[in-house]
Amino acid sequence: MNIHEYQAKQVLAKYGVPVLKGGVAYTPEEAEQVARGLDGPVFVVKSQIHAGGRGKGRFKEPAAGDKGGVRLTKSVDDVRENAAQMLGNTLVTHQSGPEGKQVKRIYVEDGCDIQRELYLSMLIDRATSRVIIMASTEGGMDIEEVAAKTPEKIFTVAIDPVTGIQPFHCRNVAFSLGLKGDQVKSCTRLLMALYRAFTETDAAMLEINPLVVTGAGGVLPLDCKMNFDSNALYRHPDISEMRDEDEENPAELEATKHDLNYIKLDGAIGCMVNGAGLAMATMDIIKLYGAEPANFLDVGGGATKERVTTAFKIILSDPNVEGILVNIFGGIMRCDVIAEGVVAAAKEVSLNVPLVVRLEGTNVDLGKKIMADSGLPIIAADNLADAAQKVVEAVKEAQ
């Protein structure tokens, strides 16, 4: 689960991480009130959306100006004017996609005397089961670009979960960033607090870009992104309340309400599979036969007819879907239940794209009979390769 910048800073502040004073606003009037409560005279007005690159982004509406989604202002009146330009308009960044995201809230923050911009993140390294600290002197840039062009400028430290973070870890990071004297001490305090916040909130990723060195020698996060392990949110009701459903894909949001694992992708072949590993294999073989999957969708091992019907509707809600591949291996899941759900959904939504179904396992013969007797133009497949080939060919013929 992702949260906004201002929410991430609220979380970090609870753990003693130094953050600049600021407040969230939903109207230009609220933005003005927040600014009047800050030290000033310089303020930063930041669009709050779940996408990076806000500063370099551009609004679709001309009335929003052409100054990006993060703006430096020098008066309370400027704060109000820029808030009015941002709120309600759509910001397009390299991470939002061409459709952009509508700005429904902004963050007004005190300005800062920036001497240097750095990069810092914490994330889970699945290969070693450790928290990794990633740091770079190239603050303000996309870390992917740094990794591609100057990988030697990225420094990483792995934290053993037995010992947790130690001062020497922090000093190694500080020295790699070229920090000296009191800056090293400030960085050490910051990293110790960040690690505690990361582990105790079950975060999956924490990114600070840029991390800045101030004129006074302090080190603090100027921006912050956090996302959390959704499976651990039951332990953190305060963080769960920060969820902004307006920022989520509607189909993915609907899927979570029905305990479905759905992720929208950019292809044209919709997939419905039971089991995450089988779903990944299904997507791979679709690519092997020359097409692209439109989604990842795992209905789980104990799905009901109703859940299968809902999954089918979610797939078809994507206008990019030109064909559907249902790939079920019936272990716990029964093939006849899947068949009933597929038939019910296809009839309800008036299916108008090719549908290929491959069933194997428990009650497979009954499942195939249900589909054969349905009167629907369902294409049966004998195995996974056969299914992938048939759906790709069916989509090409329908174009």
From TrEMBL:
Keywords in alphabetical order: ATP-binding, Ligase, Magnesium, Metal-binding, Nucleotide-binding, Tricarboxylic acid cycle
List of residues binding substrate: N274, G331, I332, M333
Cofactor binding, per record: Binds 1 Mg(2+) ion per subunit.
Cofactors: Mg(2+)
Gene Ontology biological process terms, A to Z: succinyl-CoA metabolic process; tricarboxylic acid cycle
GO CC, alphabetical: cytosol; succinate-CoA ligase complex
Enzyme nomenclature, EC number: 6.2.1.5
Known catalytic reactions: GTP + succinate + CoA = succinyl-CoA + GDP + phosphate; succinate + ATP + CoA = succinyl-CoA + ADP + phosphate; (S)-malate + ATP + CoA = (S)-malyl-CoA + ADP + phosphate
Pathway membership: One-carbon metabolism; formaldehyde assimilation via serine pathway; Carbohydrate metabolism; tricarboxylic acid cycle; succinate from succinyl-CoA (ligase route): step 1/1
Domain ATP-grasp stretches: 9-55
UniProt-annotated binding residues for ATP: K46, G53, R54, G55, E109, C112, E117
Key word rRNA processing present: no
Entries under SUPFAM superfamilies matching the protein: Glutathione synthetase ATP-binding domain-like, Succinyl-CoA synthetase domains
Amino-acid positions noted as binding Mg(2+) in the UniProt annotation, renumbered to this chain: N209, D223
GO MF, one example: ATP binding
Quaternary data: Heterotetramer of two alpha and two beta subunits.
Task of the protein: Succinyl-CoA synthetase functions in the citric acid cycle (TCA), coupling the hydrolysis of succinyl-CoA to the synthesis of either ATP or GTP and thus represents the only step of substrate-level phosphorylation in the TCA. The beta subunit provides nucleotide specificity of the enzyme and binds the substrate succinate, while the binding sites for coenzyme A and phosphate are found in the alpha subunit.
Matching PANTHER family: SUCCINATE--COA LIGASE [GDP-FORMING] SUBUNIT BETA, MITOCHONDRIAL, SUCCINYL-COA SYNTHETASE BETA CHAIN
Family per similarity comment: Belongs to the succinate/malate CoA ligase beta subunit family.
Protein name, UniProt field: Succinate--CoA ligase [ADP-forming] subunit beta
Source organism (scientific name): Roseospira visakhapatnamensis
